[in-house]
Amino acid sequence: MSHRDSAAGEPVSTPGATRERSQGTRRLGLIVPVVILGVLVAVLGVGLTRDPSLVPSPLIGKPVPEFDLPPVEGRSLGLSSADLRGGEVSLVNVFASWCTACRWEHPLLMALEDEGVVPVHGLNYKDAPEDAAAWLDTLGDPYTRTGADLDGRVGIEWGVYGVPETFVVDGEGRIAYKHIGPIDERALQERILPLIERLRQE
């Protein structure tokens, strides 16, 4: 028997068909939010497991930007791009007296300097000269050279997001690695020191 109206020739809607369509719509309405929620959880999960210090830099593998900075007040050696092309692997640490997190990593930088592990150069970012000098006089000066980047222009050329940041520079003056945030013992032992050793062997 055909379920068509003889006059209009259109299908006749039965109660069963209506119920099935209604249930299908409800199921779809439940499934879509669950799928969206699952995708959001997956994306957030990946983001939370990523190390924020591993943000890629477009300067990796490229020569350091050309710059020439005067020394921090009370120091005799400034910092320039030419100083980083002397054939020795080095670190460039971006710091400021107003940076709380810089205090957290400072003892590690002092240890590197005391043990002669690697030359550490300081890029003093947007700091008052007297404040930078007082900070180093009080906490100790781990830097072989320090450059006073008073207006932050050199930091911008280095792609600095914030303070502190630390760059590993190879002997030819190319940026090999960028660490965002304060250096801790784990980052030092697992990433920075092995990279320094590998660059020296190359």
Describe the fold and architecture.
This protein has two domains: 1-50; 54-201, Glutaredoxin (3-Layer(aba) Sandwich). 42% of the residues lie in helices and 15% in strands. The chain contains five helices and seven strands, in the order H-E-E-E-H-E-H-E-H-E-E-H. The strands form two sheets. Strands 5-4-3-6-7 form a five-stranded mixed beta sheet. It has a two-stranded antiparallel ribbon with strand order 1-2. Helix 3 links the parallel strand 4 and strand 5. The radius of gyration is 30 Å and the shape is globular. The model is unreliable at 1-8 and 41-54 (pLDDT under 50).
SSE blueprint and pairings:
Blueprint: H1 15-49, E1 68-69, E2 79-80, E3 90-95, H2 100-115, E4 120-125, H3 129-139, E5 146-149, H4 153-157, E6 165-169, E7 175-180, H5 185-201
Relative helix content: 40-55%
Strand content bin:
15-25%
Strand order of the largest sheet: 5-4-3-6-7
Q: What general outline do the C-alpha atoms trace?
A: globular
User: Order of SSEs, N→C?
Assistant: HEEEHEHEHEEH
Instruction: Using the coordinates shown, work out and report the CATH topology of the largest domain.
Output: Glutaredoxin
Distance between the termini: 86 Å
Biggest sheet descriptor: 5 strands, mixed
